[in-house]
Amino acid sequence: MHRTGELYGQFQTLEQQKESATLGMKLSVQFSGAMHSVLLFSYTINRHYFFTAFGIGSNTLDITLGTVNTIVLIMSSFTMAMAVWSAQTGKKKLVPLFLILTLSLGCVFLGIKFVEYKQKFEHHLIPGRNFDITYRSSRPAPGDDPKEIALEKEEVEKALASDPDADSHAQLYFSLYFAMTGLHALHMLVGVGLIVWLIKASLRGRFTPQYNTPVEIVGLYWHFVDIVWIYLFPLLYLIDRHR
Amino acid sequence: MPEHSEHIVSPKIYLTIFLALILGTGLTTWAAFRNFGPFNIVIALAIATAKATLVVLFFMHARYGERRTRLVIVCALFWLAIMLALTLSDYQTRQPRMSRLISRAAYYAA
Question: What ipTM goes with this model?
Answer without folding.
Answer: 0.90
